[in-house]
Amino acid sequence: MEKDPNAILLGEDILDPYGGAFKVTKGLSTKFPQRVFTTPISEASIAGLTVGMALRGMRPIAEFMFGDFITLAADQIVNHAAKYMGMYGDQMKLPMVLRTPVGGGRGYGPTHSQSLEKMFLGLPMFHILAPSHFVHPGEILVQAISGSYPTLFLENKLLYPEVLKLEQHSGVINRTVHFDEHNYPVVVLSNFPDKRKADIAIVAYGGISRLLGPVLNQLAQEEIWITACLPVSLSPLPIKHIQATTEGIKKILVIEEASPAFGWGSEVSAALYDAHAGQLDGPILRIGAANSVIPASKPLEEKVIVSEEKILSAVFEVMAW
Amino acid sequence: MVKVLPVKMPKVSPNDDNGTIVEWLRATSEEVNKGEILCIVETTKSIFEIESPSGGYFFPLSSVGEAVDVGVTIGAITDTQVTQEEVIHLLEQEEQPQEIAAPVPVTNESTLTIKAQLLAKRLGINPAELPQNGQRITEEDVKKYAESRNTSLHSDRLEMDTVRDRYPEGKIQRILIIGGGDGAVQLLDVLAKTPEQQAVAILDDNPELRGKKVNGVPVTGGIDVEQIVALYEQDEFDAAIISISTIIKLRAEIFEKLKSRGIPFANIIHPSVVKGFNVKMGEGNVIMAFTHLGACASLGDNNFISAYCSIEHHNEMGNHCSFGPGVVTSSRVIFGDQVRCGTGIFIEPKIHIGAKAVIGSGCIIWQNVPDGAILKSKLNYVERASNKK
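ok -> structure tokens follow
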């Protein structure tokens, strides 16, 4: 906001002293009182305003308090934000960012814990980003705001308190970063030191990164070598990078927080089957939330969403093939 | 004994991990009734009241304005009048940590890494026999151990009797054939060429076959375990064989039932079968014409191997497997139980085929096949039907 006077923030309850439900905007309304606006409870109008501002040359950034509410803005996203750049070609850009917290694990129940991004994946000229804690989310947010495309920016709730892991080596975990065609990072993690081939490739994004650290550490103890690919951009999918990272690895596991049916993992798997036909040891295993509502009770919620234990048992299953 | 009940900061909102005490409504050691309001607490979204969980004397233990984490004691109720110091002392005693359970002894299994466990399983090594080194046993350790005892790995085969399945010389084995379909015809064809074995009767559940003869052998009744046991006890036959090859589940069930009743099974082997040395075989196996069993191959019980199969040396086959014609394996392939193979299948060396796997005709297997897997070859399909009538 300091760099660009056209950057404008809007959303519900984002003003100080509350500073937003997850405190992401805390302090900004005090520092930039003319450019931070609290809005009525209408995601459709927030999105509409955002599209309008972007059309007229501003760089609006809107917050939806919970990702679950994004369906209220579906028409503005699908029929407006995702259309104009295609309809008017080079004549215009639509630099707008819709930020929203997603995911479960905090006992918020069926309507405040979902990962609904699959409903918006694959829209042309519309980007969906989901940073993990292996990248710097602030830098990616600035990149999205400075870009030309309307962007949905997903923040996993459980990543908010996580410490960023940006080191090249951290214990047994090595981290390298590639950049896709829109210059968004594709993080590649491995839990083995040398040039050997991984036993299993894991492809995942966003909040799953929180589980991958401990999982990769534990699997190293079991001599199970993993290469994990974590793209920031979900749509468009940097499939060439994912294909290159998983090339030559015989077993593939795709993990997402949403329920896997008709989702991101399905698209990734289909693309990987195209690239690695005949080279895999078995079917690509996809894991995600159970196809169910997310219970408010924490013990029940744990049964529905992805956990370290579920990933480990999936890995052991794949290893036994 | 004074009873003390702690009052803890409740979780009233998923947004907050603590609450701030706004006001105490009861004084220290004041008598309270169950359900009476003790204090007012503020969270980010609302203000709420905390009620007394029981009747007694109340002791506030946090101060106004203090943000207290959820689950932390903010006060206490006692059943008798005591001093505040006594209450704190009692609570400390109550909150003594429970004794930590003795650590579960590490089992030998878990001293192996998962990779090491998988390799040990594949090599048939019991984890308990691996040398301990005080650290976790790695894949490399298992490999070294397997190499070190490689000579002894197959020594039992060298001492093995190669003709375990041979019937006493000079006596004809009377065979009861179970199942009267095409399999029975094939068996009868083999038996016509094996002078030491002779079919005496066929059993089949199809009532239309009852009383009829297949190649001169009568179909005498249905597949009834009690009936078969009675026939055996009356010395009507010496050994049974199952001719059913397509329904493996049925084949296995009949075999297990009859075995549990003490019925012996024969091996029916076509004279053209080429058997390498040290081939080991259980009973109830059917091996059709021109099949090759490589040296030191081992078969369990009740397998049905069609013509022109080649089961190469050191293959290990479980029980109740059924192979169509032309299944060719390379060395040291291991089959689980109840594997079903179609026709025209090639299998690379050292492959493990899991139990109950089904391998479609025309497959070329170059990787391990998990239990219960169904493999299908997609090499050919009808590309275009001829237009000519």
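DSSP finds ten helices and 14 strands in chain A.
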